[in-house]
Amino acid sequence: MSDIGFVRTEMLPEQAPPASAVGIIGWCRANLFSGVVNSIMTLLSLYAVYAVLSFFLPWVFSPTWNAGSLNECREILHAQGKEGHFAGACWGVIRERWIQLMFGFYPKELYWRPILTFALLFVAVIPVLFNMISRRMNWFLLALVVFLATLAFSGIMAWILMIVSGLGALYLAYTLVSVNKTDRAEQLAAGAKRLPNPLMFTAAFPFIFPWLLWGGSFWLPIGAALGFVLGYVAYTVLARSIGGLVGLIGGVVAAAVWWLFLVGGFASIAESILPLSIEAVQSRKFGGFMLSITIGVVAIVGSLPLGIVLALGRQSDLMIVKALCVGFIEFIRGVPLITLLFVASTLLNVFMPPGTNFDIILRVLIMVTLFAAAYMAEVVRGGLAALPTGQYEGADSLGLNYWQAQRLVIMPQALKISIPGIVSTFIGVFKDTTLVSIIGLLDPLGLSNAIRADANWNGVVWELYGFIALLFFVFCFSMSRYSMYLERKLQTGHK
C-alpha cells in the first residue's frame, strides 16, 4: 500500500491577487507598459501632453476677466511679466459680450422670451427623449414654467397664464388622492393615469415656439393649428365617403387654402374681439446661439419625419412617387448647403406673388430642413435595407396593411438600426447653422466678426472662437451621449 501522507487533505485559503495585477497599477501595466514599444509610446505621449498643457493652461488661466479692451489685457499681462501674442487670453471680451453672443441684438427687456421658449422646449422633449420622468412630474414642470412666465407677462395674458397654471396645480393635487384606493403606491399610480398624456404639450409646442420668439398676435399660431384640424376633418369626411387617396388630397388642399388665404383674416378678427398679443420682434434682431439653436431645432425636428416619408417614397412601387423622391434626394444631396442658402436669401422671393414678404429666417429654416431631410432619407433607407425580408413577411402574415406594418413592425426596427446615422446627421445640421453668417444672419460666428470690428477688441481671435467652439461642443457632445444612451436602452440582442 502506497504512502499518501504527502497529499494535502484541505483546500488552501484564497490569496489576494498581486498588487501589480489589479487596480490602477495593473491597468497601467496591461494597457500602457505591456511591452518595450508600448512603454516608449506611452512616455512620448505623456511628454506631448505635458508640453501642450504647460503652454495652454497658463494661457487659459489669465487674470483678464475685468479688462475693457485688448490694450487693458496687455497691460495686465505686462504687469505680471508676460509678453507676446500668446502671453495670456483676453477674457474680458467674453465677459462683456457673452450676452450678445447668446441673444444677438434681441431687445434686452425681452430676453425672458427666448429663455422661456427654451425652457418650454426642455419640457416638451422630455416625454419624447426620456422615460425616467413620470407623467405627473412632467406636468408639474410645465405648470411651474407657466407660472414663472406670469411674472414676465402683463395684462390679460398674465391672468390667463396664472389661471391655467393654478388650475393645473389644483388638478395635480387632486390626482394625489384616490377615493377607492388605500395603498399609497396604488394611489399614485391611479392618480397618474388620470393625467393627460404630456405629448399633448409636445404637439402644441411648435405653435407656441414661434409666437414667443417673434411675438405678435397669439391668434396666428392658433389659426395655424386650426389648419391641421381642418385638414384632418376634410380627410376623415372624404375618406369615408369617397376614398383614402381622395381624402388625403382633400385634407392637404383644405389645410393649404386655410393657411394661405384665411388664417390671416381669422387672426385679425379674433384679435379685434379678444386681443392676445405681445411685442413683435423683427428677424434682423435675431442672432447668436439663439439663432443657431432655433435653426437647428427646427431642422432636426422637421427633417426626421420628412426623411422617413422620402425614404418610404424612394422604395415605393408607384413610379411617379418614386421618381419625385429620388429626384429630390439626389438634387439636394448634389448641391452644397451654402448654394441653397444663397437661393433662399436671393431667389426664393422671386417665386412668390408680388408684394409677398417672406421672412429671411423662415426661408433659411425651409432650406436647411429640406437639406437635412434628403440626408436623413438615405440614413433611414439604409436602416430599411438592413432588415431581413422575414420582417416584412411576418407583418404580412399578421394581416397588417402597409401603414400598419410600417408603424408597428418595420419602422421601429429600421430607426433603431439607424440611430448612429440619424444622430450624426443631427450633429452635422446643427454645426452647419454657422453657414448662415454668409447670407447676413448674425449667428455666433457672424457676431464674432462684428465684435472684432470694435476698436476695443480688434485683434481678439482665439478667445471668441474658443468660446463658440466650447458651446458647440457641449451641444454636439450631449447629442452624441444621448445617442449612446438610446442605443443601450433599445439594445435587444442576446449575449
CATH architecture of the largest domain: Orthogonal Bundle
Work out the helicity level: 55-70%
- What's the CATH C level of the largest domain? Mainly Alpha
Mean pLDDT: 82
- Alpha-beta classification: mainly alpha
Task: Describe this protein's structure.
- With 495 residues, this protein is mainly alpha-helical.
- The protein has 4 domains: 32-99, no CATH class; 110-200, no CATH class; 215-280, no CATH class; 284-495, MetI-like fold (Orthogonal Bundle).
- The protein is 69% helix and 1% strand.
- The protein has 20 helices and 2 strands.
- The protein has helices at 23-31, 36-60, 70-79, 92-103, 112-129, 135-149, 156-175, 184-193, 199-214, 219-241, 244-273, 288-314, 319-333, 337-347, 360-386, 389-397, 402-417, 419-432, 444-452, 462-489, and strands at residues 216-217, 277-278.
- Strands 1-2 form a two-stranded antiparallel ribbon.
- The longest helix is centred in the middle third of the chain and has 30 residues, at 244-273.
- It is globular.
- Residues 178-192 have low confidence and may be disordered.
Structure summary:
α12 (288-314) runs antiparallel to α19 (444-452), α14 (337-347) packs antiparallel against α15 (360-386) and α18 runs antiparallel to α20.
Features:
495 residues; mainly alpha
Which helices and strands appear, and what pairs or packs with what?
Blueprint: H1 23-31, H2 36-60, H3 70-79, H4 92-103, H5 112-129, H6 135-149, H7 156-175, H8 184-193, H9 199-214, E1 216-217, H10 219-241, H11 244-273, E2 277-278, H12 288-314, H13 319-333, H14 337-347, H15 360-386, H16 389-397, H17 402-417, H18 419-432, H19 444-452, H20 462-489
Antiparallel strand pairs: 1-2
